[in-house]
Design brief:
With 297 residues, the chain is of the alpha/beta class. The protein folds into 2 domains: 213 residues, Rossmann fold, CATH 3.40.50.450; 62 residues, Arc Repressor Mutant, subunit A, CATH 1.10.10.10. Helix content is 35%, strand content 16%. The strands form 2 sheets. A 9-stranded mixed beta sheet has the order 1-2-6-5-4-3-7-8-9, with helices on both faces. It has a 3-stranded antiparallel beta sheet with strand order 10-12-11. Helix 2 runs parallel beside helix 3 and helix 3 packs across helix 4. It is globular.
């Protein structure tokens, strides 16, 4: 039985808050699979399509390790590193999201039909392109901003000097996301792009723990990335929180209002709101607004 395909727009509760905060969010997001997958803490893993066996194994292991610790793996379902990361997440019994450069009803590449079906069972296929849109070459750089926009961090595994993965890294930097890279073989040109990122200050990744260190501190404090969420602090901490202390219980606020009140720009505000939502102190309502209510934080 085929899964239903539906569309969400900014303001819809199912539209990812982190994605809504980038400067050019998709006006419509088409989803096939599990809509609630888009509300989970996410890390992107992207890299070469013509990946080496080393890169494929690294991507698979990172995907599996992140999934086992409750982190959703985002990638583009391309050949090579992307598909290895998705498969790793699925093997780790976790959630994974594929951002497509075509309609969600179009499987590309065709040999990934079985992978796409598995992703829909535990996560989702998403696209800003309407159903039936073919995989035009120009669609893929455009969709990369969604991969980074959904994610708290972007991990590059094996990228050449001119690579689509570097486009994703560029979007991530513009959006204030952490950029990390896996070191590789210095022979040949497979890793020039990833090594250039490392020289420019990207965090070096050897294992999933290196990625988890880049998560916002509040998320780590509550156990995200450790395999189970720990008990949240009490609401007494609200007086120290720059967002909660500016919110009146029962009143709703949009992102611009919260940014002005808290003094945090959107890049820093969105991860904090996600932490508060996951911790039960803030609830997102229709229209993309946020409400504080009495409960844990």
């Amino acid at each position: 039985m085929s899964l239903a395909i539906f569309a969400v727009s900014p303001g819809d509760l199912r539209y990812p808050a982190a994605l809504a905060a980038i400067h050019d969010p998709p006006p419509t997001l088409w989803i096939k699979g599990q809509a609630d997958a888009l509300g989970t803490p996410s890390v992107a893993i992207v890299g070469s399509r013509a990946a080496s066996p080393y890169a494929l194994e690294v991507a698979r292991r990172l995907g599996a390790d992140l999934a086992r610790r409750g982190i959703t793996v985002v990638s583009g379902m391309a050949r090579g590193v992307d598909s290895a990361a998705h498969r790793g997440a699925l093997d780790g019994d976790g959630i994974t999201i594929a951002v497509l450069g075509c309609g969600v009803d179009v499987v590309y590449p065709r040999e990934h039909a079985a992978l796409a079906a598995r992703i829909c069972e535990r996560g989702a296929l998403i696209s800003e392109f309407p159903q039936g849109t073919p995989p035009y070459k120009g669609n893929f750089p455009q969709r990369n901003r969604i991969i980074s926009g959904l994610s708290l961090a972007v991990v590059i595994v094996e990228a050449a000097e001119r690579s689509g993965s570097l486009i994703t890294a560029g979007f991530a930097l513009e959006q204030g996301r952490a950029v990390l890279a896996v070191p590789g073989n210095v022979l040949g040109g497979r890793n020039y792009g990833a090594h250039a990122l490392l020289r420019d200050g990207a965090t070096l990744v050897e294992c999933a723990d290196d990625i988890l260190e880049e998560l916002p501190p509040g998320m780590r404090d509550r156990g995200w990335g450790t395999g189970a969420a720990t008990e949240s602090p009490t609401v007494n901490r609200a007086s120290q929180d720059p967002v909660l202390r500016r919110m009146t219980e029962g009143e709703s606020y949009d992102l611009d209002e919260l940014s002005d009140l808290s003094g945090l720009d959107r890049v820093r505000l969105l991860p904090r709101l996600l932490e508060l939502e996951l911790g039960g102190a803030v609830r997102r309502i229709e229209g993309g607004r946020f409400v504080r209510f009495r409960g844990p934080c």
